[in-house]
Amino acid sequence: MSDGFGILKYYKEHQDEASTLGVAAVLSQVVALKVNGVLVDLSFSLGPADTVELVTLSSPEGLDVMRHTASHVMAQAVLRLYPGAKLGVGPTIENGFYYDILLEKPIGDEDLPTIESEMKKIIEEKLPVVREEMTREKALEWCEKNHQPFKAEIIRDLEGETFSFYRQGEFVDLCRGPHLPNTRFLKAFKLLHTAGAYWRGDEKNPMLTRIYGTAFATKEDLENYLHLLEETKKRDHRRLGKELGLFSFHEEGPGLPFWKPKGVVLKNTLIEFMRAHQRRLGYVEVETPTMLKDDLWRISGHMENFKENMFFLEKDGENYAIKPMNCPGGMLLYKEELHSYRELPLKVAEFGKVHRYERSGVLQGLLRVRGFTQDDAHIFTTPEGLKDAIREIIELVDVVYRTFGFSYSTALSTRPEKSMGTDEQWELATSSLKAALEESGIAYTLQEGEGAFYGPKIEYHLKDALGRTHQCGTIQLDMNLPERFDLTYVGEDGKPHRVIMLHRAILGSLERFIAILIEHYGGKFPFWLAPVQVAVLPVSDRFVEYGCEVKRALERAGIRVTVDTSSEKLGYKIRQAQLEQVPYMLVVGEKEAAEKKVSVRHREEGDKGSVSLETLVEELKRQNRFPGLE
RNA sequence: GCCAACUUAGCUCAACUGGUAGAGCAACUGACUUGUAAUCAGUAGGUUGUGGGUUCAAGUCCCACAGUUGGCUCCA
């Protein structure tokens, strides 16, 4: 290295490690360089004026370099095992890497161990990874000679006249790099699963086999990651939904969930929670029909733009469509009567059940279904009232998400190239959304040109306890439907004006939101939301009667409670209630019955001693109130 | 829809290269009357997702259908 600066800087940052581990140990962690801010191989030749940073395995960039090399090693192993394989692309992704490969004979997950052991051999061989450059002509020649048509396609689509290739042993791959110095640097990796993937994501193209894998700097990191995957699996809402008796699916209704009594409690409690918040803000609530004649969907534009996702039926020669959205029905209601500017903003909520055809392959538990309930609302406002109307929604979303302990990020999407409406309309719409966000003190990212053709929108991405993000809430300004349905209000001047309409959903799809909640809480719902809040556990048959008395007292206070009347021992009853994640267990026996008391056990805090029934009822009533309403 | 895999008792899963389906939990019955995460014993439960085929013989092999799972633009 011609420049000592980077090394100095590195040592300054890693002084402690260097003294305890020794110089070699620290240097051996270096896998790449960053020269003038650009990531390059260790073999990069430096100039005198270059600023150099060392990239180690412990940095995100270093890990990325390693995963990239891992994908090459995997491709090499596949080529050794299955000669004639054609390589697609092999990028790194958030938690690992993949490679898309066209194989003469398809392989499955059971072939992964074979590939893994071949990869281990390649690592043992300690093959140096060498960068080579080729001209366009040479590169295409190489593709031809090595029967790599996909690589040739990539080169043809790329700009520039020289292309870098990386060689390790007999394996060469077109790649931007950088890579590990040699294959031995790859320490902890695992192949996870295979899947089909269209070449360049286009279903008109051939289907390649995608092999997913991951790699980490140390064995421990890899173990931790695999452990996290296990944990995630345990929290899977499909598994917990079955175990906790919340919902089910049947062959007869793909993508159409059946809600069981406990699941209905969850769903209804969420709806009541939203209602309570909306009522405070002066919302009204409506219900529009599940199916309406297709004339309506022609006016709304859905027949033009959403037909592929709709279900239809025919009766008496009339065509009906099952609603995929609630808005067109809401438009008819608005149009029924004249509206004065004095009654705006008009906030109309609908917990509407909608159905959308989703391709069979994309259905996924409650996360992707064909029938779901939205916490929808349409807000009709004057231009003057727009900003405040938006701000009110932003604040409501904040309260709702914080109730569940979700952190979230927001994005504002602005006018796309293809759009309707005038410049003035878009200007008012976009600046109102911006101003509302800023006044609320909410940070947001700008997605230029990502808005809908009919208006700009705010999207919410919430982050769950496992660090995954989900898109749920959205606030959309719609200039299209008021136009199509000719929605107006009577202004101060006595003349009709075009009304401004906002769509807004906070939970989005209740089904999806519940799936997220189940995984977020791992089935341990907060008290106010738990399907069963209290389990009364008589110590023996003799105290069942008193147990039932306790149950009735709690029921009268609006608490969801069960009594375990089985003739099992107390330990067994506790276990059952714990497995069901019931927040409170009330043990009742001789002492309790005599003194009108209960012994309280909390699902996480354990035995909390005994209190009088009266005190407990008051306490639980307090805990049962909807959060965020004070 | 496409690629791959899976579908066995209510649930979770067994059954070697084809030889006639088994366990735990749950349910039911009985005994025990229980004090903070599983009391004991017994009983019952299956046209192996559906339909077809190969075979002396199919849970196992082949085909079709259904459902489920992992994926299907994070561009060398």
Could you list some keywords that capture this structure?
single chain, 630 residues, Threonyl-tRNA Synthetase, Chain A, domain 2, BirA Bifunctional Protein, domain 2, 4 domains, 8-stranded mixed beta sheet, 5-stranded antiparallel beta sheet, 36% helix, RNA-binding
The tally of structural domains comes to 4
Strand content: 25-35%
CATH A-level architecture of the largest domain: 2-Layer Sandwich
**By helix and strand content, what is the structural category?**
alpha+beta
Arithmetic mean of pLDDT: 89
Biggest pleated sheet: 8 strands, mixed
- Number of helices in the DSSP assignment: 21
Give the proportion of residues in helices: 25-40%
Radius of gyration, Cα only, in angstroms? 31 Å
Kindly report the oligomeric state of this protein: single chain
Strand order of the largest sheet: 14-18-19-26-23-22-20-21
The CATH topology of the largest domain is: BirA Bifunctional Protein, domain 2
What's the overall geometry?
globular
